[in-house]
Design goal:
It contains 11 helices and no strands. It has helices at 9-19, 25-37, 39-74, 81-121, 138-148, 152-163, 170-182, 186-196, 205-218, 222-232, 237-244. The protein starts with 8 loop residues before the first helix and ends with a helix. α5 (138-148) packs antiparallel against α6, α6 runs antiparallel to α7 (170-182) and α9 packs antiparallel against α10. It is an all-alpha fold. It folds into 2 domains: 9-121; 130-244, Serine Threonine Protein Phosphatase 5, Tetratricopeptide repeat (Alpha Horseshoe), CATH 1.25.40.10.
């Protein structure tokens, strides 16, 4: 894990507030959007999360040690099996807590690797020139402009309404999936993009395979992602796959 960075006091405080859910929904959304654009910030959040987990584990150990001392003071060993039994239970509890902390750390580390790779290789589809859309369809072209300027939610809303009248349109389905992915909705994107990546005769087939593979990677579904990445034909796909195997 790359730790060649520093975390300022201000950054630590806001990250801690985020992890402890001490910020409101609007602040949380803004912070998560910032993380999606800044890989180093996501790494810092992960580091603080691990730090807090370690603090909690150390705090538990300290409380257990103090508890043992108090037991010895107030209940000498001559009191028999009750003290020994309680101590054993506390040791088991401490072991379970430590195992849980390590499991969280390993899972977070693995998850962070996939998120980093996704962020490194994912760039939203650049979109089409208006003239290359659905003919003179004003709604499609208007949504394409929203998409190209980064207003993905608006594009999704407009293309979603348009889709009710032409549910099988390949161009519409592909770019609706692309917009969902750009807006962070991996599950919705996968559903739409998979339909385009299922048939090599469909337009946008290679791109649909690439973005489907990336969306699956972001979810941690590596084994399912690799075949789509291979079928994409992208030059960078081999490099990415080699890092997943």
């Amino acid at each position: 894990m790359d730790t060649n960075y520093t975390i300022s006091t201000e950054e630590f405080e806001i990250i801690e507030q985020y992890l402890l859910s001490e910020i409101n929904a609007e602040e949380r959304l803004a912070f998560e959007n910032k993380m999606s654009e800044d890989i180093s910030l996501a790494s810092k959040v992960n580091e603080v999360k691990l730090l807090l987990t370690g603090i909690e584990t150390a705090s538990l150990k300290e409380r257990l040690d103090n508890y043992h001392i108090n037991i010895k003071k107030n209940h000498p060993l001559t009191s028999g099996g009750k003290v020994i039994s309680l101590q054993r239970k506390l040791m088991v509890a401490a072991s379970i807590a430590l195992l849980a902390a390590v499991s969280v750390w390993l899972y977070t580390l693995k998850e962070n690797k996939y998120e980093k790779l996704y962020a490194a290789y994912y760039k939203p589809d650049p979109g089409l020139m208006s003239a290359m859309g659905l003919g003179n369809n004003y709604l499609f072209n208007k949504a394409m402009l929203d998409y190209k300027t980064g207003d993905y939610k608006k594009a999704i809303d407009e293309w979603g309404r348009l889709k009710t009248g032409m549910p099988q349109n390949d161009t519409l389905n592909y770019f609706l999936g692309a917009a969902q992915q750009a807006d962070g909705n991996s599950a919705a994107a996968i559903t739409l993009l998979k339909s385009m990546a299922s048939d090599a005769a469909k337009p946008f087939y290679n791109d649909a395979c690439w973005y489907t593979g990336l969306a699956l990677l972001k979810q941690g579904n590596v084994n399912e992602a690799i075949p789509y990445l291979e079928k994409s034909g992208r030059p960078e796909s081999s490099e990415l796959i080699s890092q997943l195997k």
